[in-house]
Write a structure and sequence with these properties.
The structure holds 2 protein chains of 2 kinds. Chain A is mainly α. Chain A is built from 12 helices and 2 strands; from the N terminus they run H-E-E-H-H-H-H-H-H-H-H-H-H-H. Chain A folds into 2 domains: about 60 residues, no CATH class; about 250 residues, Orthogonal Bundle (MetI-like fold). The chains are: A mainly alpha, B alpha+beta. Chain B: It comes from Pseudotabrizicola algicola.
Chain lengths: ~325, ~350
């Protein structure tokens, strides 16, 4: 273990070391000229420059983009239209009928994403909790079982999408199994409800291990003596679960739920490779809508895409604040203990 | 053997089977099948020939039709098992006309028999179509895609490690005005996903002329707040006395960074390196937007483009999917401990 760790450290630091030696002399001079302040600036500069140009600046000008119209890419060449893009996104003649909305695709994407978030997150959390509870039973070969669930987490979304597209194909192995059992084959990716369920199932498959792992860490942190005390009192297992396990797991559980929500709101790659948003618009989600409107369609509309992404960003910021607040609360509780 | 049985039938502790024991077995058993099965099926399928891939129901293992060299014919002939009134025998096909095939006995090639194709099945053996793996590299651009992916992953990871550790060092070991602000700024953007800033980011990358350049994929991803955050938390645990002692010995601040702090941060750097490799190798949405010319595609974008064609050539596509999966599977097999520890400890992925 330490051998691997040391080797890894060496592999990581060796190329950096070579660079560091070259920079030794010039930086000594720089330090003499500018003092410690100059060195702090030097250490911060590369990261903060990239961060400012490619994260902060886009964040700020995104708002400006969402208030302009036209196909021009650069901000100064675009026409200011105020809140017109937001109005276009949100205006419907009759809110009970999405077909009357000016941007009905946006509303369809919104409805799909909403449904997806509710179903996927609740199923995912239930499955992850069950998995964590099972892994927490003094199992032999725990690392193997953990690996079983964790394996798909590292796979790329494109690979995940293609693996399942192949299995769910009309002539795929799943249909072969159905026919083998005397049932009719199903057009998994070409029927609306099946395709939507497939998107939910595949994303759960891909992310289950990640969430189970965090919950497992939470379960393992629950003091054993609580369970021993409960056993001595002859408490029923169900009662132990509701009264000890679940309440003590709650802090982790909340963080996991918020993380899962944040991920689900942005669902894109796996679903996109799996179904391409289809059939029709059955699995069109928000991120894909933004991608299509801003980049992929013939009539690119960067302003509209920016407005939609700001609306999505708003939801994500709320969720992030919620997560930070939960984290703070956990930290305070941890200190009190 | 008895130990294996004891292991398989052990229970929660009591003498009788608890329903939770049954449930655990069912859950774990189906998990092995559901989690590993699809990837295994991908690998098995990737070795099948196009004809085999279009078979329904599919066979588990890849097979190859057997051929035989028969005297008097310059090319090898496919072998079939024929079953009809005359009994069961193995014949080679000379040519096929409609539903009737002209076949010969390989041992006795003089006499041509006419056989209805309903009465015969091809003779085949387990065999691997390695061409599925070779052709995409030789005839298509997958070699370029692979090189691009390796370049992006390697360079982005190195830059990430360097810039993030420098920033984390400044933010953990120096007192200066605005430090708190920078730290808060970084934490605040921890969860801002790329999908929220696609449009303005594209215009900026386009403004600096990096559209259709691998650097356009690399640069926006390297200043990860997650990395800075992770490394800073780790560096905060390094005692300042070490740094002071080095200053007494006239070490420059730069030397303190790379000779003292960096080696001590190696475990955290290793975790970040592993994550960075997996992130950058798997990146899809941003490369999809920035890279629109074939010669700069990464594997992920190339695969997607290939899968989006009207006539999907599954035999090549499946093989290339396996290739794309390999580095991540290697990371998983050898470094799983670091990753699971990293996730359980920090909740990052």
């Amino acid at each position: 273990m330490t051998g691997v760790k040391g080797m890894l450290g060496a592999v990581v630091t060796a190329p950096l070391g070579a660079l560091a030696r070259v920079l030794d002399a010039p930086l000594r001079l720089w330090q003499r000229l500018t003092g410690q302040g100059g060195m702090v600036a030097f250490f911060l500069l590369p990261n903060m420059a990239i961060f400012t140009i490619f994260v902060l600046l886009p964040l700020v000008i995104n708002v400006a983009y969402s208030m302009t119209t036209g196909a021009a890419l650069f901000l100064p060449e675009r026409t200011y239209v105020g809140a017109a893009q937001y109005e276009r996104l949100l205006r419907c003649a009759d809110y009970t009928n999405l077909a009357t909305c000016q941007e009905d695709q946006f509303w369809i994407a919104l409805r799909n994403t909403g449904t997806f978030v509710v179903l996927q997150v609740s199923l995912l959390i239930v499955a992850a909790t069950i998995t964590a509870l099972i892994l927490n039973r003094a199992l032999r070969a725990l690392s193997f079982w953990r690996a079983v669930f964790f394996f798909p987490v590292l796979l790329s979304p494109v690979v995940v999408g293609l693996i399942w597209r192949w299995i769910l194909d009309r002539n795929g192995v799943l249909n072969a199994a159905l026919v083998g059992m005397g049932m009719d084959p199903v057009n998994w990716l070409l029927e609306r409800n099946y395709a939507f369920s497939a998107a939910i199932g595949v994303t759960i498959w891909a992310h289950l291990g990640f969430f189970a792992l965090i919950l497992l860490a939470g379960l393992q942190a629950i003091p054993r003596d609580l369970y021993e005390a409960a056993e001595m009192d002859g408490t029923k297992p169900a009662r132990v679960f509701w009264r000890i396990t679940l309440p003590l797991l709650m802090p982790n559980m909340l963080v996991v739920i918020v993380l899962a929500l944040i991920r689900a709101v942005q669902v894109f790659d796996e679903a996109y490779v799996l179904t391409g948003g289809g059939p029709g618009t059955a699995t069109l989600f928000l991120t894909q809508y933004i991608y299509e409107v801003g980049f992929a369609s013939l009539l690119k509309n960067p302003g509209l895409a920016a407005a939609a992404s700001i609306l999505m960003g708003g939801v994500l910021i709320l969720l992030t604040l919620l997560q930070l607040a939960l984290g703070k609360r956990n930290e305070r509780k941890g200190r009190l203990k | 053997m008895s130990r294996a049985v004891a292991f398989l039938t052990r229970r929660k502790g009591g003498e009788r089977w608890d329903w939770t024991d049954v449930f655990t077995f069912v859950w774990l058993g189906s998990a092995v099948f559901i989690m590993f099965g699809p990837a295994l099926w991908l690998v098995l399928s990737s070795f099948k020939s196009p004809a085999q891939l279009s078979e329904f129901p599919p066979t588990l293992l890849p097979y190859e039709a057997q051929t035989v060299v028969v005297e008097g014919f310059d090319r090898p002939l496919p072998l079939f098992t024929v079953t009809d009134e005359a009994g069961t025998r193995t014949l080679a096909e000379v040519r096929r006309v409609g539903t009737v095939a002209q076949m010969v006995d390989p041992e006795n090639p003089g006499e041509v028999e006419r056989v209805n194709i309903a009465n015969r099945t091809p003779v085949r053996e387990v065999g691997f179509s390695w061409g599925n793996y070779l052709d995409p590299f030789l005839r298509f651009d997958f070699l370029t895609y692979t090189k691009n992916s390796i370049f992006v992953t390697g360079v982005a990871t190195l830059i990430t490690l360097l810039t993030n550790s420098m920033a984390a060092f400044a933010l953990s070991k120096y007192e200066f005005r605005g430090r708190g602000f920078v730290v808060v700024l970084i934490i605040a953007t921890l969860m801002i996903p790329l999908s929220v800033i696609l449009v303005p980011l594209y215009s900026i990358v386009s403004g600096v002329g990096l559209i259709n350049s691998l650097w356009g994929v690399i640069l926006p991803t390297v200043a990860t707040p997650t990395g800075v955050f992770l490394l800073r938390q780790y560096m905060l645990t390094i005692p300042d006395e070490l740094l002071e002692a080095a200053r007494m010995d006239h070490a420059s601040e730069w030397q303190i960074y790379w000779r003292i702090v960096l080696p001590l941060t190696a475990p955290a750097l290793a975790v970040l390196a592993i994550f960075s490799v997996v992130w950058r190798w798997n990146d899809f949405l941003w490369p999809l937007i920035v890279l629109s010319r074939q010669e700069v595609y990464t594997l992920q974008v190339g695969l997607n483009a290939y899968a989006g064609e009207l006539n999907v050539q599954w035999h090549y596509l499946l093989a290339m999917t396996v290739i794309t999966m390999i580095p991540v599977v290697l990371v998983f097999i050898f470094l799983q401990r670091f990753i699971t520890a990293g996730i359980a400890g920090t909740g990052l992925k």
